[in-house]
Design brief:
The chain is an alpha/beta fold. The protein is about 25% helix and about 25% strand. The structure holds NADP nicotinamide-adenine-dinucleotide phosphate.
Length: about 325
């Protein structure tokens, strides 16, 4: 195919008995899945889901071998669809990418034209990678809270997992929009960086255990963005103010949810589910447009670490161990 080399590097995860083998291999264009648009990948990122896609009990990978990488940012190298032009900078994430078809941890990726988001003006390719699926999910969470009525000045808004991908970008978007933003983190070292960024306060992860087992606690939060799940979501539900909401997107500490119905029936609080993967493409393109404009995080791209495909094994292990900080960017093709 014109413009696409016969061989290129890819980071591959392959099931071998009860292990998953991981490493950089050479792939050919014929190894890519079907689709109208072939992308020369410039950047990907490391998300929690990518780490799960490379371990035996992760329950994310649907094929083997798999090129993980749920984020793809790059330039169109070939297109069979007139709506997507060769040379255009694009983003693609969600749907089956990096799960049941090859993703962004390779120099080339192929996707259906209907999954492609043209890079909005005002965002560089690196900016888009610094946002990635994690930042898109953060933006969707903030948009959902505001659509339900949260406005700057309403009071403290809590972000959990604040040193990680979703949480870190959520903090930056809330600050950009003038919300009184509070961060919950399990990493004492991250607290100073979060304060320097402008958060009103930092609470330790152990705060989530306060009042454990009680149906309701003091009404504290005007809203919350939670990507941690098990340990924190029940705490948030029992400490939200009357009619406030939490946007829940993740399960970094586990999938169980132990709550009572009292926050819902006595305080009218709302649990807003956020799923970034199966968003209709028109909505996805519109939200990316807002990320470049009114939902743009403060200091976008500041809190990033860059490495190549060979840095992935260490990074994926660190994410699973809860050591992620900020957004980790994979420089695939520069
Ligand atoms: N619904 C969606 O569409 C969607 C999209 C993207 C991500 N997610 C989910 O959101 C969650 C976060 O994703 P991410 O990419 O932001 O991950 P990440 O970069 O690894 O950040 C997760 C953060 O959660 C905190 N955490 C609390 N308890 C933890 C534990 N037991 N193990 C590991 N981390 C723990 C840590 O922050 P602190 O140390 O600061 O507490 C960690 O940095 C994941 O469950 C992911 O699958 C969902």
């Amino acid at each position: 195919m014109a413009g696409i080399p016969d061989g290129f590097d890819a980071f591959v995860a392959e099931v071998d008995g009860d292990r998953v083998l991981r490493g950089v291999r050479r792939l050919a264009p014929g190894d890519l899945p079907p689709g109208e648009v072939t992308i020369r990948v410039a950047w990907s990122g490391v998300n929690y889901k990518d780490a799960l896609a490379t371990v035996a009990d992760g329950k994310v990978a649907r094929i083997s071998p798999l090129v993980p990488g749920i984020d793809i940012v790059g330039t169109v190298a070939a297109s069979d669809d007139p709506a997507v032009v060769v040379g255009e900078e694009v983003v693609a994430h969600g749907y089956e990418i990096g799960v049941s078809r090859h993703g962004g941890f390779a120099a080339y990726a192929r996707v259906p034209a209907g999954w492609v988001v043209p890079l909005p003006s005002g965002l560089s390719a690196r900016d888009a990678a610094a946002v990635g699926t994690a930042g898109y999910t953060a933006a969707d969470s903030v948009a959902a809270l505001e659509a339900r009525g949260l406005a700057p000045g309403d009071g403290p808004v809590l972000v959990t997992g604040a040193s990680g991908g979703v949480g870190g970008v959520a903090v930056r978007i809330l600050l950009a929009r003038g919300h009184e933003t509070w961060a919950m983190t399990g990493k004492p070292a991250a607290a100073d960086r979060l304060r320097a960024l402008g958060v009103a306060g930092v609470v330790g992860r152990e705060e989530a255990a306060a009042g454990e087992g009680r149906a309701l606690g003091p009404e504290r939060w005007a809203g919350a963005v939670d990507c941690v799940g098990a340990a924190t979501l029940p705490y948030i539900l029992r400490t939200l103010r009357r009619d406030a909401a939490v946007a829940a997107s993740g399960n970094a500490s586990g999938p169980a949810l132990a709550t009572t119905v009292f926050p819902f029936i006595l305080r009218g609080v709302a649990l807003l589910g956020i799923d970034s993967s199966q968003v209709p493409i028109a909505n996805r393109r519109a939200l990316w447009g807002r990320i470049a404009a009114d939902l743009r995080p403060v200091g976008l791209g500041d809190d990033t670490t860059e490495f190549g495909l060979d840095g992935l094994p260490d990074a994926l292990d660190a994410v699973l161990a809860g050591r992620a900080e900020g957004r980790w960017l994979v420089r695939v093709g520069g």
